[in-house]
Specification:
alpha/beta, Rossmann fold, 9 helices
C-alpha cells in the first residue's frame, strides 16, 4: 500500500478512545488538510462493509492524513456508549489527536448518519476554527413526525399507485396492513404540535454559522436522506440552508444508506477527493 497506518491513543477528560491513523507513505506528497471520520450509528471505526477503512485508505493514498476512531463503548474504546448529540468532547479530543499526530493545521469532519449530525452539533457548540470543511453523508434528523411524513411521501404514495397493491387488497392480502400503516402515519402527522427537536435546530444553527465548505451527499434509496431533504424543505430553522455559499449537494443514484454497492462507495470517495482537492 502507498500509505501507512498505526493505532493512536486519544485521551479526553474522563475518557479514552482508540483511533486508527492513515498517512501517506513516507516521502509521498502530503496535503495540507486532515480528515476526521466521525462514524454513525452503533458502529466502530471500520464501518459497514469496511466503508470507513476503504475511505481512509483511498484518501491517505491521495495525500490526506485520516483519523477514524471508536467512541466510548464501541470497538476498542472502553466506557459507556455516548449518544450522538453528546459527543462534542470526543470529537474535540479526536481532532486534537489528529492535528498532533499529522503535520496539518486544519481538518475537515467527514460523517455518516448521526455522525454527520454530531459533526454539525460540534461546530454549533464550539465554532472550532480548525475545522474548514464538513462532508455529510445522509445526515440524521429523525423525529416521529418526520419519519411519518417521509413514509407517507416516499413509500405509501408509491404503493397506492401500484396495481399489485390493489390486487392484494381485493384478495384480502397484505394491502390491509399497508393501509393501516398509512393511517397510523397520517395520525402522527396530524397530532404533532411540538416544534422540531432541539438537536435538529442546533444542527441548523451549526450549518448556517459555519463559514467553511459543506459537501452534502444523499443516497437515492435511503429513507434517512429523504427525511433530511423533507425536513430541510419544511422547517424554518433550515430555510435556505441548501442555498448557502460554499454548500454543494450530490445525489447518489441507486445508493443505500451506507453506499454498500462498490460503485456507490467509489462514487462517495471520488466526490470526497474532488471536494478536498478544491479546498486544499
Amino acid at each position: 500500500m502507498n500509505l501507512q497506518e498505526r493505532p493512536i491513543h486519544i485521551a479526553g477528560d474522563g475518557f479514552d478512545m482508540l483511533g486508527m491513523l492513515a498517512l501517506p507513505a513516507p516521502g509521498a506528497p502530503l496535503r495540507h488538510t486532515g480528515v476526521l471520520v466521525v462514524v454513525g450509528g452503533a458502529q466502530y471505526r471500520v464501518g459497514s462493509h469496511r466503508q470507513f477503512v476503504r475511505l481512509a485508505r483511498r484518501l491517505a493514498a491521495a495525500g490526506y492524513p485520516v483519523l477514524r476512531f471508536d467512541l466510548p463503548g464501541m470497538g476498542d474504546s472502553p466506557g459507556a456508549p455516548v449518544p450522538f448529540d453528546s459527543c462534542s468532547p470526543h470529537i474535540a479530543a479526536a481532532l486534537a489527536a489528529l492535528l498532533h499526530a499529522a503535520p496539518v493545521r486544519h481538518a475537515v469532519l467527514w460523517g455518516l448518519c448521526d455522525g454527520a449530525s454530531a459533526s454539525l452539533l460540534y461546530l454549533q457548540a464550539t465554532q472550532d476554527a480548525r475545522v474548514t470543511g464538513l462532508a455529510l453523508l445522509n445526515p440524521w434528523v429523525r423525529s416521529e413526525v418526520g419519519l411519518a411524513r417521509a413514509q407517507v411521501k416516499h413509500y405509501y404514495r408509491q404503493r397506492l399507485l401500484e396495481p399489485a397493491f390493489w390486487r392484494k387488497l381485493a384478495a384480502g392480502g397484505v394491502g390491509w396492513t399497508a393501509l393501516r400503516g398509512l393511517l397510523k402515519n397520517l395520525r402522527a402527522m396530524r397530532q404533532a404540535a411540538a416544534p422540531s427537536l432541539t438537536f435538529q435546530e442546533l444542527m441548523a444553527q451549526g450549518w448556517h454559522a459555519f463559514e467553511g465548505k459543506i459537501l452534502l451527499i444523499l443516497s437515492e434509496r435511503d429513507l434517512t436522506a429523504q427525511e433530511f431533504m423533507d425536513h430541510a424543505a419544511t422547517q424554518p430553522a433550515w430555510r435556505d440552508a441548501l442555498q448557502r455559499p460554499g454548500a454543494s449537494l450530490h445525489r447518489l443514484a441507486g445508493a443505500d444508506h451506507t453506499c454498500s454497492p462498490p460503485a456507490s462507495q467509489a462514487q462517495v470517495e471520488d466526490l470526497t477527493l474532488a471536494w478536498l482537492a478544491a479546498m486544499d
